[in-house]
Design goal:
Helix content of chain B: over 70%
Radius of gyration of chain B: 19 Å
Oligomer: heterodimer
Number of strands of chain B: 0
Largest sheet of chain A: none
Helix content of chain A: over 70%
CATH architecture of chain A: Up-down Bundle
Order of helices and strands of chain B: HHHHH
Shape of chain A: elongated
Order of helices and strands of chain A: HHHHHH
Shape of chain B: elongated
Number of helices of chain A: 6
CATH class of chain B: Mainly Alpha
CATH class of chain A: Mainly Alpha
Number of domains of chain A: 1
């Protein structure tokens, strides 16, 4: 009897699985972007290694690398990559600080999330200006 | 207490701590490298030939190669832990997950050999 009523309750429980109607809190946004940027950085690892190789292998490959990276679409890619790096870096430092129990209350965690997003935006802007100068 | 947490009774703790320690090493390396590049300015010359020569000299220093090797070893370990977590969270088919994990393992080992080859051919 008891079991049946629980089953019934579960059957009529309202569900909301439409992700577009759920607004993630800012902490969750920073957290999921940390994961997404991590996966992105993992996927571009071969390109990073290739760039390191080309930069040191010979004067010719260095010249080729600088020419390739000077194209506007490569600069766009670099700026995207710099976003992934800076987000992973700053959000990662935030996670490390939380691991040692710094700023772990909800209010402070929301504040540090905003700080991370501002730092990332600022760093990407500096990077973009530096490579387009 | 920490010692007890890190023994074989709690293998997850060791993975957790490895991910944090590698993150710390990478952060220190990157901040130091950025500061050093800003001070030394190997890319601040008039021609690309001079830039290449300065960068070549900078990167062929033994401490740079050793630090970079340490950095990438930490990075590969960190990436292995991170990608494993992602696979455990999103890939529910155990066979598929095992194959993906194996592919990631192989790729990371190949990267490590490739990196050693790059660094010791400067």
């Amino acid at each position: 009897m008891q079991q049946n009523s629980t089953k019934d309750k579960n059957r009529h429980r309202p569900k909301n699985l439409n992700l577009f109607t759920i607004r993630l809190p800012i902490n969750a946004v920073v957290s999921i972007l940390h994961r997404a940027s991590g996966v992105g950085l993992f996927l571009v690892l071969p390109l990073i290694l290739l760039a390191i190789k080309m930069s040191v292998a010979s004067p010719n490959s260095y010249f080729l690398l600088t020419n390739v990276l000077n194209a506007w679409y490569m600069k766009l890619l670099l700026i995207g990559l710099s976003w992934a790096f800076f987000h992973h870096f700053f959000a990662g430092i935030r996670h490390l600080l939380q691991d040692i129990h710094w700023m772990t209350s909800l209010h402070k965690a929301r504040f540090s999330s905003r700080v991370v997003l501002w730092l990332v935006g600022f760093s990407v802007a500096i990077f973009a200006i530096a490579i387009c100068w | 207490m920490l010692i007890q947490l890190l023994t074989h009774k709690y293998p997850g703790m060791r993975l957790w701590l490895s991910q944090r320690l590698t993150a710390l090493v990478m952060a220190i390396y990157i901040v130091s490298l950025v500061i050093l590049l800003l001070v030394v300015q190997p890319f601040g010359n008039a021609t690309w030939q001079e830039n290449y020569a300065a960068w070549y000299e900078f990167s062929s220093a033994i401490w740079f190669r050793l630090a970079t090797l340490l950095f990438f070893m930490c990075l590969f370990m960190h990436a292995w832990l991170g990608v494993s977590d992602v696979l455990k969270d999103y890939v529910f088919n155990k066979v598929l997950r095992a194959y993906l994990q194996m592919a990631v393992d192989i790729v990371l080992v190949v990267y490590l050999f490739w990196l050693v080859y790059i660094l010791w051919n400067i």
